[in-house]
Amino acid sequence: MAESSNMVLTHPSISGDLIPLKNFNLLYQTSPSTSPKSTTSPLPDVADALVQYHNEILGGPPVTLTWQDVKVQTLHPDGTRRTLLDRISGFAEPFNLVAIVGAPKSGKTTLLRALSGRLLENESLEGEINLNGRRQQLTYGTAAYLTSEDVICEMLTVEENMYVASVLKLPPEMPMKRKLDIVEQIISDLALKESSSRQVGCCRNSKSLTQGERRRLVLAMEIVMRPRLLYLDEVTDGLKSSAALLYMTKVKLLAGEGRTVVACFQELNQSLFELFDYLLILASGRRVYFGEARFAHEHLTQSGLHSPVEQNLVDYFLQTQSEDYQDVITSMKFLQDLEKADGLGVEVPESIVKTLEVMYESSGICSQMAARLRGISSKKGAVLVHLASHATIATQIMILTYRFFISDLRDLGHYWARFTLSVLAMLLIGTVFANLDHSVESIQERASCLFLVYELLVYMTIGGVPYFHHDAKVFRMERVNVHYGAVAFLAGSFLSSLFILFSTALFPLCFVYFMVGLHPGFRYFFYSFLNLSVSLVASEGLMMTISAIVPVPHAGMIVAACIQTIFMLVAGYIARPNDIPRPIWTYPLSYLSFHRYGLWGLYQNEFLGLKFQQSSNHMNGLQVIHNLYHMNHPGKWGNLMVLLFMGFFYRAIYYILILVEDETMVKWRQNLCALYFQYGTHVPMAMKRFRERTCAAVT
Q1: Which of the 8 DSSP states describes residue 422?
Q2: Which of 167, 566, 604, 650 could be cross-linked to 636 through a Cys-Cys bond (beta carbons 3.0 to 4.6 Å apart)?
């Protein structure tokens, strides 16, 4: 019988009585036809059997991850370097769950990013990281990286989110029935069957998913492509203890299928601790322990670490390394609980951390792990190739259009609220300006009516900033594992919004156009519809750009309102084009305002071809456009083309912004700080203090 440290995992597809163990050894198992005195012996076809098992279960060979003397440094704006990780070594094998634990700023996430190839541009890596004993890159479908963020499409159900994930992430040549079978199996395996028909979020509806279910759904959407290597970055943060235990239990079962799992934790309890196979403890970027998790408590005890209360020593060590631990002790003393405060007061200062590091380096566990690491590194495993492929660009656009369209239809707070308010507003405007005649006095009324119609419809797009911000967050999270590109995301978003934007322009316009009695004729009505539709497309493009620049949604709405107001002021109605001041307001603001081209096109469409008269006063539409409003060039179709160009221009800017990696933004902020430091000696002391505070804030 294998020891408790070895997980025995059988599978009917492996011939004979072979049982793959965690340490890649195979064991003869007693069978009814053989003597009970069977012996253990490695077989010549061990690797072939294990690869066959992984190919059938996970669609590819196993992945072994090793890292040796990993050192990560970050470059500060003043040119100095800070060491984040210092000579960290370890390994992770199939069927194993390796936990990386440590206090905040201990280097857990940095190590995980280094192992997965996600370091920032200002971070440098030294050391050796191998996959299957080789220096090679991760291929698509081999690994998945998950964080504690559970950003998902809120309006879709669990099944719909999983369906979208399967179409995007599984090979296009795989039959749809096979994809749906995989989805159904994963939903069942991760305990999401009962909530499969519920929406992820329902606007304070009690039927929405719990936090634990959301995290498991994110995990399910990633493992649908059957990755053999999982990186989990503090995925249990913010979960209740029961939800965290259920999540990690499911992760442990995934590891039991042959996956290699590396996870980092900031907090843990005894229940979670018992699920770990190997444990890596970090403190201030240094390794305090790496070995089997079951021996960690005994090693820390022998190293001189003792908890004042009955507590797991690993958990106690993490508590003592937190920044607010001293405040806890002080608070206990203020509460007059001196006995408990004295118990908590057994701190682990930096010198003790150094002692624990030295004790581990001289321990037998360290020697065993080093020998194990050398043995694993010397075995050359399979070369990672692209065994899986994601959907084609056409399929990506189609499925993302479906996802956005379903979300828009179900979201009552975005497009439907805008549509309803637009219809009501147009009814009110129609009753105010009902049945206009063709007198000279009606010129101003027609212009005012068109101005109100245009500005109300355009202004309502400001409400979309939070939704575009959420969509961008979903894209950035899903882009971590490269399931689709920015082109597919932008095209799907654009195509899905066309129906609702056209509806928002058409139905409200029908009410106000015929109630007021604007320019008769279908071609004039059709142009007004096209003008408003393209203006909404341009306005939404601007809102998307603002949502990508301003990190806070509500602040983005304020910025959007200010920009829309400025664009309205220089459009040509509140102040005639010839009366707008030339510097800044005309050049460039008026020419950058899409309101200008939308209003000019509507006015040209409305007034050209009409005649207005009152007693002896006569004025035709051409005189109104040229002499009264000074809206000469371009013509109405030229204005429409400019609107269309601006709609695509704003989306092109949005495309560039969502492609900008987070590390690029960090580098930009640091370059800004470097300029401050370079020229800081030439500013007064007050400005210098302001400069230092600004640099501290942006970095």
Answers
A1: H
A2: 604
Q: Is the pLDDT of residue 44 over 80?
A: no
Lowest average pLDDT, out of 112-126, 156-170, 242-256, 562-576, goes to: 112-126
pTM of the predicted structure, to 2 decimals: 0.80
Backbone angles phi and psi of 15, in degrees to 5: -70, 155
In this prediction, residues 440-448 reach a mean pLDDT of 92
Confidence category of residue 307, pLDDT binned at 50, 70, 90: low
Measured CA to CA, the distance from residue 619 to residue 63 in angstroms comes to 81
Which secondary-structure segment (H or E) carries 101? strand 96-102
Using CA atoms, how far residue 444 sits from 16, 49, 611, in Å, is 91, 85, 14
Q: 5-19: string of b/e by CB count within 10 Å (b at 16+)?
A: ebbebeeeebeeebb
Total Cβ atoms within 10 A of residue 246: 18
Q: List the structure tokens of 511.
A: 């009410």
- At 551 the pLDDT is 83
Q: How far apart are CA 543 and CA 561, in angstroms?
A: 10
pLDDT over 80 at 5, yes or no: no
State the pLDDT at residue 316.
67
What are the start-end ranges of the H helices in 227-337? 241-256, 270-273, 296-302, 313-320, 325-334
Measured at the CA of 153, the angle between CA 149 and CA 159, to 5 degrees, comes to 110
Between CA 403 and CA 286 the distance in angstroms is 45
Closest CA to 107 of 252, 230, 233: 233
Helix ranges (DSSP H) in 550-628: 553-569, 589-592, 594-607, 621-623
**Cα–chain center distance at 653:** 19
The sheet with strand 143-146 has its strands ordered as 143-146, 229-233, 260-265, 96-102, 278-283, 286-292
The rounded distance, in Å, linking the Cα atoms of 489 and 393 is: 10
Percentages (nearest 5) of helix, strand, coil residues in the chain: 55, 15, 35
pLDDT at 611 over 80: yes
Which whole-number Å values give the CA distances from 676 to 114, 663, 696, in the listed order? 30, 20, 12
Q: State the average pLDDT over residues 665-687.
A: 48
**Looking at residue 501, what is its pLDDT?**
93
59 CB-contact burial (10 Å; exposed 0-12 / middle 13-18 / buried 19+): middle
- Tens digits of per-residue pLDDT, 234-283? 998 888 888 999 999 999 999 988 899 999 998 887 888 889 999 999 98
SS3 147: coil
Angstrom CA distances, 693 to 111, 255, 338, 551, stand at 29, 46, 39, 20
For strands 229-233 and 587-588, give the pairing: unpaired
Task: Quote the CA–CA distance of 40 and 53 in Å, as a whole number.
Answer: 20
Rounded Cα distance, 18 and 663, in Å = 48
How many residues are listed for the chain in this entry? 699
